[in-house]
Fold this sequence. Notes:
By secondary structure, the chain is of the alpha/beta class. 47% of the residues lie in helices and 19% in strands. The strands form 3 sheets. A 5-stranded parallel sheet has the order 6-10-11-1-12, sandwiched between helices. Strand 10 (279-283), helix 10 and strand 11 (314-318) form a beta-alpha-beta unit. The longest helix has 35 residues, at 155-189. The protein is globular. The protein starts with a strand and ends with a strand.
Amino acid sequence: GLTVIWGENGSGKTSLLEAVHILSYGKSFKTSRHKELIKRGSSSYVLRGLYGKNGTSETIDTEYRIKGSQKTKLNGKKITSRKEQVRRNPVVILSPEEQEITKGGPAERRRFFDKVFSIVSTEYLDTLQTYVKILKQRNALLLRVRDGKAKNAEVFTWDERLNTTATSLCAQRKEMLEEFVGVLNYLQSHYEEDVHVGLKYKPNLTDTNKYLDLLSKTRETDVSFGRTTRGPHKDDMEMYWRGAKTRIVGSQGEHKISLVFLKLAEVLFVKSKTGSFPILLLDDLFAKLDLGRSKKLVNLINRLEHEADTSIQTIITTTDILNIEQSGILNTSKNVTNHHLTR
């Protein structure tokens, strides 16, 4: 059902969504620095959660100390990799911090899609992690060659390994993105207004069969920079509005609606791949959209639920409960609970 968390700024609304996100993915959607999450004057934070699904439940505990590292336990047993955590309780977060996906550079979009694809595919996650590991090792060797501590010929071994993994990653990324675009187009066709959000894969490698030769040709440049300058870690998934690049020509309103549709596509994409809707976290969404679009968005979510014959667990934060009431979402949800937070 629907949970509404309302209160003035600084009351801790977003922190609750952040806690759900950390328990689900092992990291915050606002910062990569865990120290920033610790309450001032404290030396650690502890989060505890309970997943409930199909009559079964699992406990999740996460602790982070300033003078230590993050430790996570699943059902009382310590887990050593986020891989054991990321697919158990998928969530989709729509917050102001996420707007960099449409406004920022290629790295922001790669990070977003890598997370989405990793949630629905263990193979993709394994390939991505292997590629990143080999890339880091090759880059470390490039620095050693630049500093005269290793020979240029040693890089070739890593070139071969990087080539194999890069070829697989590019193929999986292309296939996944094509499926995601199909979901995005489906959503737009069911919206009560013309929207024109486009998405296109812009691979850094035009021909993966020639990547090994390319690594050889760019090796001198790579050594001078101390990093690998070509490969799927340079890919982009460019977003468009009416055929023009959103990050260049998009208005504030077009960026907002583009992000909303990207996130709803994420919800439906995860559902199509896993069989279950993820939890939808909306951080003050209805204050960011005009009333007309808010109501149309609610109607679209209701339609998705109706077609799937199941509800999407949704948690909404707001500073103004009136915005939520006017959007119409309170009138359509079967189960609504609300919590008022005070500073």
